[in-house]
Amino acid sequence: MIAVVTLHHYLIISGLLFALGMAGVIARRNALVILMALEMNLSAANLALVAFSKYNNLVEGQVFVFFVIAIAAAEVAVGLAILVALFRLKQTVNVDELNSMKR
Amino acid sequence: MTVHDTLFWFFSLAMLLSGIGVVASRNPVNSAMFLVLLFGFMAGLFVLLEAFFLAVIQVLVYAGAVIVLFLFVIMLLDIRASQRRHVRFLGAVGAIVVPGALAWEFVFILQKPVQPLAGREVNWQDGLEVVVKPLFARYMLPVEVAALLLLVAMVGVVLLSRRNLK
């Protein structure tokens, strides 16, 4: 019935997850949820890299994912710190209300 | 269907469902909890792909550290669930059309066979050694740069969270 799982299946799942994360980034107004959806996008890319590395017998894909995870951790820390600083200034995390660069 | 295939379908469908949960939950805490589930299933997929080291790292860093950070900030800012879901027209259309087109494009492109690269024969069962050896030999400089970046991020976060930013 269903074909044996190949590289294509992993790539399609990764693409669907990326599309889902992108929908979250576009549709949601809460900056925290937008950051979470961005994490989903990074994970989708990770899945594609690991799948490529397995089916092509190359270790480099996994090494790359290691770096992506390190960068993602740093990005979340800085992003959340910026959010906290913004919240102190404007008392909101709704991106519709964070629309001016002046205080 | 083999065990591998069954597990693949289980993990990937559960992962996509928890992804929908992250995007659709009204309460940010629920979103964070669905994100934990998503990373757990992703770690399962990594195990299926014999990337054991990355599966462990995924659980430790994402499910362990990143989500805790998210929950701390949600708690600190005392964010309530949005009372009403007011979806704006342009946002809703964009959120359906753009990712839909992207997903369709991915599926369309993948109809064609992917040319395999000529890789060496790798024994994935060796686990940690396969991934960590290149990290400390050929990719030593990127590791150092990543370490520096984490340090810079840490200093930046401490600076950003000061009360008066002047």
Q: Could you characterize what this model shows?
A:
The complex is a heterodimer of chains A (103) and B (166). Chain A has 103 residues and is mainly α. Chain A has a single domain, classed as Helix Hairpins, CATH 1.10.287.3510. In chain A, 76% of the residues lie in helices and 0% in strands. Chain A has three helices and no strands. In chain A, helix 2 (31-56) runs antiparallel to helix 3. With 166 residues, chain B is mostly helical. Chain B has two domains: 1-81, NADH-ubiquinone/plastoquinone oxidoreductase chain 6, subunit NuoJ (Four Helix Bundle (Hemerythrin (Met), subunit A), Up-down Bundle), CATH 1.20.120; 128-166. Helices cover 72% and strands 0% of the residues of chain B. Chain B has helices at 3-24, 28-48, 52-77, 89-109, 128-136, 140-160. The longest helix of chain B is centred in the middle third of the chain and has 26 residues, at 52-77. The N and C termini of chain B lie far apart (63 Å). The relative contact order of chain B is 0.06. Chains A and B meet through helix 1, helix 2 and helix 3 of A and helix 1, helix 2, helix 3, helix 4 and helix 5 of B.
Briefly say what this structure is.
Chain A has helices at 7-27, 31-56, 60-90.
